[in-house]
């Protein structure tokens, strides 16, 4: 059932993003910022945690999940380091994911020859 829940939550997030791009003049970059910001705000008011508990990876992998990780890291940083943790906690909370994206992106750039689209 966990796979079905992840599919439902992840699919709904994607549907919302597609509707925003099709129904408005928002670009994919705008939707990216909206989703990450929404993930942070929903986490801050306590609404994203139940979505994560229900949807698992369907809620943590998409862009709102990145905002969720930023917010959770910031909360933890503030608890551990006080005011300074507000600035360092989000970075610490997402460092592994960002590092993995950089490393795997670099490996793909070495293995494959990128081509520009005509």
UniProtKB/TrEMBL annotation:
The keyword Transmembrane helix applies. The chain crosses the membrane at residues 6-22, 29-48, 54-71, 83-112. InterPro entries: Spore_V_AE (IPR014204), SpoVA (IPR005562). Keywords: Membrane, Transmembrane, Transmembrane helix. It comes from the Bacteria. This is Sporulation stage V, protein AE. The lineage of its organism: Bacteria, Bacillati, Bacillota, Clostridia, Peptostreptococcales.
